[in-house]
Amino acid sequence: MPNSDESSDLNRVRKPSEKSSSSGVSSSSGQPANPPPTNPMEGGHWRPVRPEELLRKNAPTERESHQLDDNPKLIRQRRQELEVHLKSSPTDQEAFRELASIYRQEDRPQEAKRVLTEALRIFPDNASLLWDLEEAKLARSLQQYREVSDLAARLKTSEVERELKRSREDWAYRRIEVCEARLKRDPSLEHLRLVLAEAYIDTEQQDKAISELDALVKNDEFSPQAYLLRGKCLLSLGHDVQAMASLRAAGLRRAVVAPLQTRLAALRLLCETAQRLGIELLSEHYQRHLAMVEAEIAKSTTAAKMKRV
Prior knowledge:
This is Tetratricopeptide repeat protein. It comes from Novipirellula galeiformis. Residues 1-74 are annotated as: Disordered. Pfam families: TPR_8 (PF13181). The chain is an all-alpha fold. Among the domains are: 78-188, Serine Threonine Protein Phosphatase 5, Tetratricopeptide repeat, CATH 1.25.40; 204-308, Alpha Horseshoe (Serine Threonine Protein Phosphatase 5, Tetratricopeptide repeat). Helix content is 62%, strand content 0%. The protein has helices at residues 72-88, 93-105, 109-122, 127-154, 158-185, 192-202, 206-214, 223-236, 240-251, 260-277, 280-308. α3 packs antiparallel against α4 (127-154), α4 packs antiparallel against α5 and α7 (206-214) packs antiparallel against α8 (223-236).
């Protein structure tokens, strides 16, 4: 959101193999081991859906983003110039996009949305403008969620809680709206199905989430995260046996080794579920694997700290 190069809040969906992995999943909603997160950046009751993971991937590249100096005075001056320019030259598409980018840089996604909506009225078939408008809508929804969450942290009133619930739902439905639209335009954007599944989960539409995840488990690039989320959905629906099969695929599969954090989350859920069902031998088996993963994570954390010293 705040950066003109789109690198901070809503810039791109990274595939699981890239820097922002989709692995930090919390406990299931059926019988959670931990209370649901309240931070808006933690994606509701499930995994952290980081803004940089969201939807900016393979965006149209008709032009390079305008790079502005970080000097607020120069940015403000350029914004004013563009507003005046567009009044006399309302068909300058690049000016619309640059102005919207400046509003995003200034953390004003609602103004960016206004500018892009006007641009699309003039250029209704422009894919780049449509993409940018979707980004602005997402940024505005996330901004509102953050604002209400900050307020809720200070004021514990029923009215604020209702507004928090509303803004959380809006954030999930905006993700659904944009992901569905982009997949309809380009079904090859498979990485969006993880984001879409998580948004369905946040709106308690587990069946729809499972449908999206079923399409991803066959793809080795996305299967570890897809199996993990699928297992959590099945747990929340009370399908423990099927859930454990999905969680084993996320945590123990040798053909496609999942990221450490994905394996950690899956094995913790397997341990909890086996203990709850009273399957002692399986519980001990999963505990051994969990201990190995935890040791591996501790080792890699120590190595990373030593490298920074």
